[in-house]
## 1
Amino acid sequence: MILYPKKYIDKVTDITIEFLNENNILGIVLDVDNTLIDINENMLNGLEEWVSYMKQNNIKLCILSNSNKIEKVKKIAKILDIPYFYFGMKPLKFGFIKVKKLLNENNENIAVVGDQIFTDVVGANRSKMFSILVKPIAQKDIWVTVLKRPIENWIIKKYLNNTKE
Ligand SMILES: [Mg+2]
């Protein structure tokens, strides 16, 4: 199902090396808004520690944001010291092709982490990358996202019912 993530977790820092190894993930593509930072640009707790833990384990990281605010994306990329692309136009394949080239791994060895089904999850699934959906950090989204949230919540509910054992 194109709308369903491969994995649904609370936050990006919940991702462990063990989980990545089990799923043959060598590179991670990170969304920015509501995945790494909230609406006031506050960083997720423990994010810097998690990034160094990933780097120590040779996991390649890269940012792919749909935001057109280069300064915002650049700032977080600089703090975390990872490469970035902004105005990614997810779910279009365009950005994912650039990311794949940069990470230099096969699509199935790349995980895409984000808080939105229609951009992050659909884009990852279309590119045959491993989609990981996280809960949005901030409650107050920009209005486009606000419109999509009830639909997303409905899909997540269906997804959770389907994956229940
Ligand atoms: Mg986002």
## 2
Amino acid sequence: MTADRRRWRIGAIRRATRNLFLPLDANGHPLLIKYTRDREEARQEIRGHARLLGHYRVPALHAHLRVPRGHLLAYERLPSAPDRGLLLDLLNTETVTAELQQYMDDLTTAYRNVILETAQEAPPTDVVRKLYWDRAAAGGRLDTYYRGANFPVADGIVDLPITRLAEYVLVANGQPLVFGWTATLRRLRAHFQGAKSVWAALTQGDPTDVNLAHPLAWLDYDTAGLNSILGEFANFLWYITALGGWLVPTYNRAAFADHPATFAHVEANWPRLHRVYVNHSARTIHVDYTPQLCAPRRAAAAAYWNLLVQPIADKLWPDGNLAELLRPYLAMRILAVYNLADLAPVDRLLLLVRLAEVTGPTFDPVTFFTTEEAPCLAP
Ligand SMILES: Nc1ncnc2c1ncn2[C@@H]1O[C@H](COP(=O)(O)OP(=O)(O)O)[C@@H](O)[C@H]1O
Ligand SMILES: [Mg+2]
């Protein structure tokens, strides 16, 4: 037996979002012990991991064990270091690197193949429901966040209760939009109550910058299984363009503690609010802003759109309107990750404007995700 194979070492415990992680070298094998308190989530994760095996590159799950207040999962530990090991790290650069381009090629190729192999029309009862159907259902996040709530649109900037926004025309970068808060919530609840089948395929289901490892591998499996393909697309695109560069590093700093370069780039990914003007007699609210996004995130969103969303859509929805198809999923990502009432007024206003754009008749996902250059505002 070599000295290396006999080596045992225990690292420091680390907290990611909700779970605890313990790096451990056992007989020279790098392991990561994940401790999760939620039994049901652990069960989903074990099942999800098994479903992805053979389709996506995932670290081995060597063992799992029920323990008094939770569950232990022993994974093969992939190489990582500060600011290394995740897709996130490839996005925290000044320019678009060849490494990022290669990564996006590999990522979209893997997804295209598995999605086309496993695509099926499934009733919504048969797909993973956590991020969309459960959140829109009675007692889900939409309810716990917003039932009976009437917070200001943006305290000190637009001092109007959110339910009265429908009485005004919201003019976003010169584009008049009518946005009803109550009607939007009602439509979303109704959409995710419907029994109509959805196109679904085998995916990991929560493709965030921190759940995608570099070199390419998939982490975090509690939503892995048969997922709505449109939900998968909305999730990736909203994370790349809003959550990963702007909202999560602002509101959940701890999630990115091992990737501190993220914080230096928030400024470049934060939409710029230029002017807000409320005219109560004309019932208009003018908001001028630029949806800023750094070049690597724009390139990743563009690659994902061109190499994955568009080719899959051409096959599955040849006559479909992608804006209409993506709308309810994207609206759920905007509303049901963070409670808008908990965010700083400027962020809440920017998200409400983005939501009004998504629900409006002129929504165009290509420009929305700034995969094309954002229109420049007059100085
Ligand atoms: N097998 C692994 N090897 C290396 N790092 C990992 C592994 N699994 C998870 N991680 C690291 O831990 C972070 C959180 O893991 P994840 O399983 O997504 O937990 P959570 O369910 O808390 O989001 C990941 O973003 C990654 O940085
Ligand atoms: Mg995760």
